[in-house]
Amino acid sequence: MIVRVLLLIVAVGLIVRAVWRLVLGIAEGAGSGGRERGTIGRGVPMVRDPVCGTFVVQSRALTAQIGDRVEYFCSERCLNERRTKH
Question: Which end of the chain has less Cβ packing within 10 Å, N or C?
Answer without folding.
Answer: N
